[in-house]
Specification:
alpha/beta; 9 strands; 48% helix
Length: 341
């Protein structure tokens, strides 16, 4: 059912906070570098790509913490006075972090000889007809000269912490923004990268949770969603709503996948069975992962690899040495089993 993804010529990629940043808000260079390399490869192959990127607020918090520490007086340090996050702190963090995030994107894309451009938008840019048309024309002009548009909400202006009442045609997070951008430019496909492998039939932290491979909009009634990832604002429910909204306005397909998956963008657009695929052209009953033992082993191996990668070098070495020692001790049994097989 995913074979037509190979024909996608206009793709919007949304990279969530949990994909572009670590838990402390600092940028994840391996994941960002992989996204930039994949986007550049797609562009060289003739695919139009727009990147909707979160992460500015997280980056900005790190900048503000450092600057606050440098700005404090000796008396403040002696009194151990901590900087509090008052009203407007997240908006200020967005202002501080946006430059850092874009500077990083500029450096990474420079290695691919591609120039990025920045668009900071608010919901007014999609509600006001003149603003919407100007945004549309500006994006097209940027893409006509081979640059990649990088779009984010202008949190420093909007102060958006998730709108409680969102009018039609607006967004409350970057998931909704990505869907609106896909509609605005007439994209074939929307790919949303997050910190889980896709949509599960229940919160993935619960025992027995199964990955949903394919979803028809009509099958999601009364679905139970998990919480919001650390540093993010949308959560899985927002991603699913954004996916459904994109399908309603004519985007042919939406894929929700893990930003940590190796070559995830290339694999999605090759039609591989990666993440969760949303479409109006599939069966109305969700296609669940039925507990294939090989798939379960593969998922466990991927989770363990990511956990291992997050450790310090010394800790990784100790774990690998312990595994090697166990394998050597069990070598006779392993060789005997292989011979019997």
């Amino acid at each position: 059912m995913r074979t037509h993804l190979k024909a996608s010529k206009f793709v919007v990629v949304k990279a969530g906070t949990s994909t572009v940043s670590h838990d402390d808000g600092t940028p994840s260079l391996p994941r960002l570098g992989a996204i930039v390399e994949a986007v550049s490869q797609l562009m060289r192959q003739g695919t139009k790509v727009i990147l909707v990127s979160s992460g500015a607020v997280g980056c900005g918090r790190s900048v503000l913490r450092k600057q606050a520490a440098l700005h404090r007086t000796l008396r403040d340090h002696m009194k151990s006075q901590e900087v509090t996050e008052g009203a407007g702190y997240s908006a200020a963090a967005a202002a501080a972090g946006q430059l850092a995030l874009m500077s990083l994107y500029e450096t990474l894309f420079a290695t691919q000889e591609i120039e990025p451009s920045q668009f900071l938008v608010t919901r007014r840019d999609f509600v006001d007809e003149a603003c919407r048309k100007n945004l549309q024309h500006s994006i097209q002009a940027i893409m006509d000269v081979g640059m990649v548009p990088i779009i984010n909400e202008n949190d420093a202006v909007s102060g958006n912490a998730g709108y409680s009442e969102v009018p039609d045609g607006c967004f409350s997070d970057n998931d909704g923004l990505a869907a609106l951008v896909a509609k605005l430019v007439g994209a074939d496909c929307l790919i949303m990268l997050t910190d889980v492998e896709g949509l599960y039939d229940r919160p993935p932290s619960e025992a027995g949770a199964r990955l949903v491979r394919e979803v028809h909009p009509a099958s999601l009634k009364d679905w139970k969603f998990g919480g919001i990832s650390k540093g993010g604002r949308g959560g899985m429910e927002a991603k699913v709503n954004a996916a459904l909204g994109a399908l309603e306005v004519g985007v042919k397909s939406v894929v929700l996948a893990s930003g940590s998956e190796k070559e995830v963008l290339q694999r999605v657009l090759a039609g591989d069975d990666v993440g969760t695929y949303f479409s109006n052209d599939i069966a109305r009953k969700p296609s669940l992962d039925e507990g294939n033992p090989l798939e379960a082993v593969g998922q466990s191996a991927r989770r363990a690899a990511r956990a291992l990668q997050a450790l310090e070098a010394g800790d990784r070495t100790k774990i690998l040495q312990a595994i090697a020692s166990k394998l050597r001790a069990a070598a006779p049994a392993i060789l005997a089993a292989n011979a019997a097989d």
